[in-house]
């Protein structure tokens, strides 16, 4: 009997300690929330001759304010990484660039996103050409349940990019080559895209995105479902692709951000805390939150 | 710490102690499931056994062989071979003459009437058709198999016992003795009952067939399918993929779900009021029946199709939208192909329900006694379940086996429809 009481006491003690720790973290996060209103993004938010210029972007999910007043430029031929703890709004922000948020119930985006002299956030903009111009690669590889060939050919076909079969074949082959997948799939173009391995599927999705010759590629945690070898391949691919495209990548993997990106943006609870060259962000971060995050104190 | 760990019961011991109880409840659950399935199978077997054992005899019919003398004097005294003249001749006279020749000792008027009643009235139609098709028969003699009366048929098949007192039987002793004589001369045999599969309804059981009701069912289902499938799928696609989510679409959704639960006879009343009384569509027609059943089937198809569309992973839609496909292209190229198996299953379930539906069709007059085979959707017709209902309601003993046989035909139809659905589904199903 005495033993059981003792055990309970010990359990209680553990519980108490856990609670205390949780409270401390909460206080830490709360200070971040309290100071929100007067928070200014640190670092260079603008670049000369931007590909996309976002001004005062706010995103709401119903009542939830998911992205707060973010202003950011995306440069030409640059890879910009967005990092931050889960739920900080970086994916939501990414989906503003090709208006994918339109497909979400209750989602509401305000602010200006200027691209080629047009505000792409304007309701009168047709999303079809926009999404042809701004391609996207998703977190989970999502090839169509069709053949490898059909996966890549779908975009060019619906946009009428190829006059005949020969041209279409050429587009498919070059897209697969640029995605670094050609050697692996050239003998099984008629096999289902879903029969490929995870890494191959993701590269197939990249091939599908670049087949319509976009100008910007959005990548929403493209490697989170992949093993290190496949990740390396995708990273090498991004390195090559950025000669022609602007790439915006959302990642949880800070080493990845450090390896591939030219600039890095740190988001925290919907705010853009800090932007800067990747080297600067990872070596001498300007904001306490950024430093805490990249040193792994929370997140 | 050590003391603490030893005083606490070991986890594995706790698990082991709980095992017997868990095994017991698992066993109990499994046996309950097994018993339910066994019960279900037993009832199914009983149903099939009851239907088949009662109905299989309907596929045979007793025929009597008559020595027919196609007498020119009687059939065509003027020798014109004119069709109108040939069609109005008294063919029953021919049958009577032939029977009289076979049993020369029957002279009494009453006995003669009994003798003549052994042969179905269908014999006269059969003879007329023979002569009309081939006038060269006139003046010749030929042996012809004609259907026996249903009372004879029942006796031969053993459904009517010989040992009951004569007063409680429809066949007199003398008729039975004639039948025995005929049987001995091999002029009375059971043959395959083609009339059952080629005739329409009749008051005479031996002439009644399922073909009219089957055609009625087919025409009705065609109308139902043509109306409800495209409408249902289009509605489902619109509501699922395009419609904004607001209180109007909510209202529509609630109404569709409620519509699926409306008793079918209400749809029949609607058909009667709107299509027959207000729009003056023909009564008893498969067109109206199909319209009414389409209303009834629509909610089933819509709900099943929406379910199928909903189960298509959203990542596929995102992928298609992400490369710049329009909403229509996304649905047409990617969502619909994946949803088709589910949509087809829902449609077939709806159609199977429509095939078995009786109540709404009673309201629009498809319960009428219709002899003619319908040749289009505007002809008066009845359908299989209504035909079963009509026959089950008839007093003649011979209709009992025909009712069961009609049920078999209905189940066969259903079986073919379901098999078709499975084949179609397999064809469209993507295994990757």
How would you explain this protein's 3D organization?
The complex is a heterodimer of chains A (299) and B (432). Chain A contains eleven helices and eleven strands. By secondary structure, chain A is an alpha/beta fold. In chain A, strands 1-11-10-4-9-8-7 form a seven-stranded mixed β-sheet. In chain A, helix 4 packs across helix 5, helix 4 packs parallel to helix 7 (198-211) and helix 7 runs parallel beside helix 8 (228-241). The model of chain A is unreliable at 29-35 (pLDDT under 50). With 432 residues, chain B is mainly alpha-helical. Chain B is elongated. Chain B has a three-stranded antiparallel β-sheet with strand order 2-1-3. The model of chain B has no long low-confidence stretch (mean pLDDT 90). Helix content of chain B is 66%, strand content 5%. In chain B, helix 2 crosses helix 19 (398-428) and helix 5 (91-102) crosses helix 7 (122-133). The chains are: A alpha/beta (299), B mainly alpha (432). Chains A and B meet through helix 1, helix 3, helix 4 and helix 7 of A and helix 1, helix 15 and helix 16 of B.
Using brief descriptors, characterize the structure shown.
heterodimer, A: 299 residues, 7-stranded mixed beta sheet, B: 432 residues, mainly alpha
């Amino acid at each position: 009997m005495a033993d059981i009481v003792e055990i309970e006491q010990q359990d209680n003690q553990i519980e108490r300690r856990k609670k205390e720790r949780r409270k401390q973290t909460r206080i830490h996060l709360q200070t971040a929330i309290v100071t929100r209103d007067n928070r200014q993004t640190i670092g260079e938010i603008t670049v000369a001759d931007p590909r996309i210029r976002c001004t005062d972007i706010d995103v709401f999910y119903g009542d939830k304010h998911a992205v707060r007043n973010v202003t950011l430029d995306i440069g030409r031929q640059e890879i910009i990484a967005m990092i931050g703890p889960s739920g900080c709004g970086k994916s939501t922000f990414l989906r503003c660039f090709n208006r994918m948020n339109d497909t979400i119930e209750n989602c509401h985006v305000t602010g200006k996103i200027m691209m080629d002299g047009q505000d792409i956030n304007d309701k009168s903009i047709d999303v079809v050409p926009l999404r042809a111009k701004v391609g996207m690669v998703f977190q989970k590889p999502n090839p169509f349940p069709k053949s490898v060939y059909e996966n890549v050919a779908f975009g060019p076909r619906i946009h009428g990019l190829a006059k005949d079969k020969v041209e279409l074949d050429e587009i498919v082959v070059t897209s697969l080559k640029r995605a670094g997948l050609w050697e692996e799939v050239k003998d099984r173009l008629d096999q289902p895209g879903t029969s490929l391995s995870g890494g191959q599927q993701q590269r197939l999705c990249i091939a599908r995105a670049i087949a319509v010759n976009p100008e910007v590629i959005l990548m929403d945690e493209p490697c989170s479902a992949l093993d290190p070898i496949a990740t390396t391949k995708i990273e090498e691919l991004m390195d090559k692709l950025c000669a022609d495209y602007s790439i915006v990548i959302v990642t949880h993997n800070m080493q990845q951000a450090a390896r591939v990106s030219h600039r890095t943006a740190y988001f925290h609870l919907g705010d853009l805390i800090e932007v800067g060259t990747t080297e600067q962000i990872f070596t001498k971060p300007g904001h306490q939150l950024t430093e805490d995050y990249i040193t792994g104190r929370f997140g | 710490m050590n003391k603490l760990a030893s005083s606490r019961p070991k986890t594995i011991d706790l698990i082991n102690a709980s095992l017997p109880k868990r095994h017991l409840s698992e066993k109990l659950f499994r046996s309950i499931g097994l018993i339910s399935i066994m019960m279900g199978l037993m009832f199914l077997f009983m149903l099939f056994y009851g239907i088949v054992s009662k109905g299989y005899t309907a596929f045979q019919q007793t025929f009597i062989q008559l020595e027919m003398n196609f007498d020119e004097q009687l059939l065509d005294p003027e020798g014109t071979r004119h069709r109108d003249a040939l069609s109005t001749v008294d063919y029953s006279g021919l049958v009577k003459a032939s029977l009289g020749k076979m049993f020369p000792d029957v002279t009494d008027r009453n006995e003669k009437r009994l003798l003549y009643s052994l042969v179905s009235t269908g014999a006269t139609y059969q003879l007329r058709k023979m002569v009309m098709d081939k006038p060269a028969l006139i003046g010749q003699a030929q042996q012809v198999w004609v259907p026996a009366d249903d009372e004879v048929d029942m006796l031969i098949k053993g459904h009517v016992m010989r040992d009951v007192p004569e007063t409680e039987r429809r066949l007199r002793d003398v008729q039975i003795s004639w039948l025995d004589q005929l049987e001995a001369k091999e002029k009375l045999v059971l043959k395959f009952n083609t009339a059952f599969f080629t005739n329409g309804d009749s008051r005479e059981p031996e002439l009644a067939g399922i073909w009219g009701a089957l055609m009625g069912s087919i025409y009705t289902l065609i109308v139902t399918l043509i109306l409800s499938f495209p409408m249902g799928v289009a509605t489902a696609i619109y509501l699922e993929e395009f419609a904004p989510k607001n209180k109007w679409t909510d209202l529509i959704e609630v109404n569709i779900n409620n519509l699926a639960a409306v008793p079918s006879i209400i749809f029949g009343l609607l058909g009667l009021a709107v299509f027959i009384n207000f729009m003056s569509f023909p009564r008893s027609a498969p067109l109206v029946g199909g319209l009414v059943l389409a209303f009834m089937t629509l909610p089933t198809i819509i709900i099943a199709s929406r379910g199928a569309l909903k189960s298509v992973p959203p990542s596929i839609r995102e992928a298609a939208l992400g490369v710049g496909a329009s909403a229509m292209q996304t649905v047409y190229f990617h969502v619909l192909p994946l949803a088709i198996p589910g949509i087809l299953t829902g449609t077939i379930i709806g159609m199977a329900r429509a095939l078995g539906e009786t109540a709404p069709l009673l309201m629009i007059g498809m319960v009428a006694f219709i002899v003619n085979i319908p040749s289009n959707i505007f002809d008066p017709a009845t359908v299989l379940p209504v035909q079963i209902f009509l026959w089950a309601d008839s007093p003649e003993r011979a209709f009992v086996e025909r009712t069961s046989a009609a049920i078999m035909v209905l189940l066969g139809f259903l079986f073919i429809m379901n098999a078709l659905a499975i084949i179609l589904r397999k064809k469209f199903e993507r295994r990757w």
